[in-house]
Amino acid sequence: xxxxxxxxxxxxxxxxxxxxxxxxxxxxxxxxxxxxxxxxxxxxxxxxxxxxxxxxxxxxxxxxxxxxxxxxxxxxxxxxxxxxxxxxxxxxxxxxxxxxxxxxxxxxxxxxxxxxxxxxxxxxxxxxxxxxxxxxxxxxxxxxxxxxxxxxxxxxxxxxxxxxxxxxxxxxxxxxxxxxxxxxxxxxxxxxxxxxxxxxxxxxxxxxxxxxxxxxxxxxxxxxxxxxxxxxxxxxxxxxxxxxxxxxxxxxxxxxxxxxxxxxxxxxxxxxxxxxxxxxxxxxxxxxxxxxxxxxxxxxxxxxxxxxxxxxxxxxxxxxxxxxxxxxxxxxxxxxxxxxxxxxxxxxxxx
Amino acid sequence: xxxxxxxxxxxxxxxxxxxxxxxxxxxxxxxxxxxxxxxxxxxxxxxxxxxxxxxxxxxxxxxxxxxxxxxxxxxxxxxxxxxxxxxxxxxxxxxxxxxxxxxxxxxxxxxxxxxxxxxxxxxxxxxxxxxxxxxxxxxxxxxxxxxxxxxxxxxxxxxxxxxxxxxxxxxxxxxxxxxxxxxxxxxxxxxxxxxxxxxxxxxxxxxxxxxxxxxxxxxxxxxxxxxxxxxxxxxxxxxxxxxxxxxxxxxxxxxxxxxxxxxxxxxxxxxxxxxxxxxxxxxxxxxxxxxxxxxxxxxxxxxxxxxxxx
Lengths: 351, 310
Fold this sequence. Notes:
The structure holds 2 protein chains of 2 kinds. By secondary structure, chain A is an alpha+beta fold. In chain A, 25% of the residues lie in helices and 35% in strands. Chain A contains 9 helices and 19 strands. Chain A has a 6-stranded mixed β-sheet, with helices on both faces. In chain A, strand 1 and strand 2 form a beta hairpin. The longest helix of chain A has 18 residues, at 166-183. Chain A is elongated. Chain B is an all-alpha fold. Chain B has a single domain (84-309), classed as MetI-like (MetI-like fold). Chain B has 14 helices and 2 strands; from the N terminus they run ααββαααααααααααα. Chains A and B meet through helix 2 of A and helix 9 and helix 10 of B.
């Protein structure tokens, strides 16, 4: 039985629809990411679940009960805000204790649970510190402990790592995942960072302009994006223009002279091919192109290649094999299972 | 000014320049800050420091009805003030009024600022203008307006009697109550602006965070918002207290001749009794007391809310 159900949740501001009939079911203990560019409605969705915004239409049920009927202060959700929103006039321990105090929990019990929560996020020795005396990562951990200590039925995280530097962000990703495994709280994470969403979540909900584009496990969404938008948003991708042919034998797609077999479900006519940069290899015979630029990135080389079907980005591992140099003519190829073909033109698909 | 001819002389004939160019360039740079702040320094020196020093010196002179101001140095005026019950009463009244006005301003102004911040755009501007209104009206006409309202047949008393809240008119004119109300009216804007400024610095999500942790609206205000606006209330209080303690026009008009405060007392000593040294001593003591009280309170609250102030 699903734990959290969002049923055609909609939010309109005047004539503008921020969230358009979003439906989603979340199992208990799952970590789900709402992923999308800014303005796609992911934070609005989170605020509706939290109760800071009233939906224009739709229902939210948590564990069988109607969540929208409850006041925000009665919902019992843990929320980690993008700005952390710690109480600056309270120490870390007082911050964490606030929620327990509101629940009228006795002092001794409170102290014990605060100490446990701070230890869980690795801040056991920092209880007496004021937020201003802590680094961004430490403040982040206090915010997490404050949200977790009330044993929330659901933990909402609003861009929790976006204010941290790259190294700290990676550390916190691992930390978040560890804590999630340990406490088993159901979590909804809002993020615009596809790497973060893929690293942390059991499933990702890719959103665009208030609508859901795809709900899938991270790897599946990456390998089999449901739309050009998803393909583009989840990591780098190449969009190529090709032609799908059905006449004479098996259906095939032709990209600048090179051919690949294609499923019969793709209609004949112009087609958009998406293929990931790291799946493209230099082959003796394939799509002809000219290397415009190559950039060394440490573990890998990045190539910009122009072809008849459009510009291509190619990523090759830096593993000692000979690679083409700039302005060299090359042929490119990829395995048919690494590409996706959709009807349409590349320009329309990209927009 | 000195830098320009220097540079002009050095440029056409470098060989003739006896000083190294570096020194010529360094001198104006060294003087620039002083030259730039000279107008302000002159203003402060000429209009604040010098008159203040003269007032202090004047307060040490003595005065006789038949001899006028005597150019002697003594502490007689201060001893008079510190030992005479009449002066005690005036100073006590001054600070009682100032404290009442400050407390009233905080009680009215802080919630007012909070409400204003939560208003939507068209109303916020209109209400802010209304709040700041008193500052736009001349102090004398505003106070005379209050005098009209306050009279025994004034609008306030007539209104209160009409609804049956009181049987006989309340005395507002020539009472501390009247002075406190009229002063609060004009000084509340300073509190509102000051609290407003510190409200702006609060992360709006902090209130949501408290709500999500189970706090009701009143608890959010008391435990989360209020402690964070304490610096604003404090700086507003300092302004209001200082202005209320040294206010002249309002106590003079509403308080009249009998209900004296330190400022009107000093005025009378100067212009009626012509005892300038005593008036100067009153003014100096008012200034000292003001400074002591403000600095003391500031220290106390800053220590209590150390984390919010940093």
